[in-house]
Design the sequence.
């Protein structure tokens, strides 16, 4: 078995065919990890992204501490199955509301991507923000670039690596605590920080695991989170079209690329504006060559734009050889037709948001669920009466405690036995009680009888839930 090398020569290999070149930008041809050390390229886009990143880092840190309507701005309490978003708490009973909210979120992503491309990845994704504006800058500050590291002694390099690791651990601990604040709240987090780990072993283990994952991500995995794990790049084929905004290379202007000789004796030897300096490649945080066209690994960070603009300035050529633009624009294709996704996405987004708002406004302050009791469907007493056990669950969505009165309607001959009546339910919590309905067997036709449970409180909430009692067929005995 043989394979063709980079220059066309056949090379001996094992029983498998080798790829024609590098498969991933972060992997060498032999399958080993290709470690990237992107060189920052100062420019207008890097300055704008840095300002945006610092604002987002501040918001990410402050949001768990901000309050709206007396509640955290965002709190995703998974164990309690309560999600607070901008002062409104959603419960498991709000499935339809959450469905429309998630639908609107996905449609918003589709719309933004269709218009602005992967602007989220390059400008706002936490992976990009913290890696490119916190961890990698600190790494360059502590260890320096490859040239400076080569000049240092092994002891100096080891010391600097240890210092970098210590700084990365502290940053990972900070990120882990901030991340957990979104799920446990700042009050619980403060107890975790100030008390002994023995007082909250589960929380302490969760914090350690989260810290380890943060350190693994930003210290080791890095750009592979974008190129290997994150599915967003793989969705480009369906989220983008040829008129979506992207970071691209103007091949019409740049090709044929190559170094410019001082003298150009023949007109057909003239080259394009690209001098093949490689600045756009060495600055890319995912290791791709933007001149190869739109690629899954491109996160639209615009570093190649700043790098190329700096080279064009030195060569006294116009900027924009690498720039924001659509694939059609870079190819010189004329604009034709209507982009139907820019019509369909806003309409669907408006419908989803409208349905969410309407359902949110019409949402009742409590949710009542009537369930059949555990065990046998019904029981017969000695006097021939039929007893049904029913579970009534009340979810109090309000911000204040409430007591709910339970009544039986539609069956005056029956007796309602409720050990907890009224049922007390704390604010934003659920409670369940069991009630018993005792009715004469003669009232049941075909083994069932429909009744109505009325649940109300002092705030004006009044709900009626239909329920079908079970009993013996034709009033007989079991």
Sequence:
């Amino acid at each position: 078995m043989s394979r063709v090398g980079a220059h066309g020569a056949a090379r001996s290999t094992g029983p498998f065919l080798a790829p024609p070149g590098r498969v991933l930008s972060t992997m060498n041809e032999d399958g080993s990890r290709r470690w990237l050390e992107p060189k920052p390229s100062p420019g207008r886009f890097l300055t704008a992204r840095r300002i945006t990143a610092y604002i987002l880092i501040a918001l990410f840190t402050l949001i768990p501490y901000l309050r709206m309507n007396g509640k955290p701005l965002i709190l995703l309490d998974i164990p309690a199955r309560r999600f607070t978003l901008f002062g409104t708490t959603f419960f498991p009973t709000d499935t339809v509301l959450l469905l429309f909210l998630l639908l609107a979120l996905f449609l918003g992503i589709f719309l933004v991507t269709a218009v602005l491309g992967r602007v989220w990845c390059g400008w706002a994704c936490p992976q990009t923000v913290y890696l490119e504006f916190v961890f990698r800058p600190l790494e360059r500050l502590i260890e320096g670039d490859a040239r400076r590291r080569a000049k240092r002694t092994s002891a100096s390099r080891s010391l600097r690596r240890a210092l970098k690791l210590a700084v990365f651990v502290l940053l990972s601990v900070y990120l882990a605590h901030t991340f957990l604040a979104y799920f446990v709240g700042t009050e619980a987090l403060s107890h975790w920080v100030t008390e002994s780990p023995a007082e909250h072993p589960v929380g302490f283990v969760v914090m350690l695991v989260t810290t380890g994952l943060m350190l693994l991500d930003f210290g080791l995995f890095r750009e592979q989170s974008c190129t290997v794990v994150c599915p967003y790049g793989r969705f480009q084929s369906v989220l983008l079209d040829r008129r979506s905004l992207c970071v691209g290379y103007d091949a019409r202007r740049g090709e044929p690329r190559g170094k410019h000789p001082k003298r150009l004796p023949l007109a057909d030897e003239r080259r394009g504006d690209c001098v093949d300096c490689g600045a756009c490649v060495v600055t890319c945080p995912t290791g791709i060559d933007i001149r190869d066209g739109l690629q899954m690994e491109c996160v639209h960070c615009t570093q190649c734009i700043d790098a190329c603009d700096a080279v064009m300035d030195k060569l006294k050529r116009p900027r924009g050889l690498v720039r924001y633009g659509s694939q059609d624009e870079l190819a010189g294709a004329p604009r034709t037709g209507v982009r139907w996704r820019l019509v369909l996405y806003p309409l669907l987004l408006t419908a989803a948001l409208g349905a969410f708002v309407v359902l949110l406004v019409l949402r009742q302050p409590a949710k009542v669920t009537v369930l059949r009791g555990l065990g046998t469907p019904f029981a017969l007493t000695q006097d021939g009466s039929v007893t049904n056990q029913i579970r009534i669950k009340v979810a109090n969505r309000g911000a204040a405690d409430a007591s709910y009165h339970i009544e039986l309607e539609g069956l005056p001959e029956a007796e309602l036995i409720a050990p907890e009546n009224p049922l007390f339910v704390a604010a934003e919590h659920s409670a369940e009680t069991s009630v018993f309905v005792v009715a004469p067997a003669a009232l049941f036709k075909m083994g069932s009888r429909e009744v109505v449970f009325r649940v109300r409180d002092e705030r004006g909430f009044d709900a009626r839930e239909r329920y079908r009692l079970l009993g013996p067929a034709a009033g007989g005995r079991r």
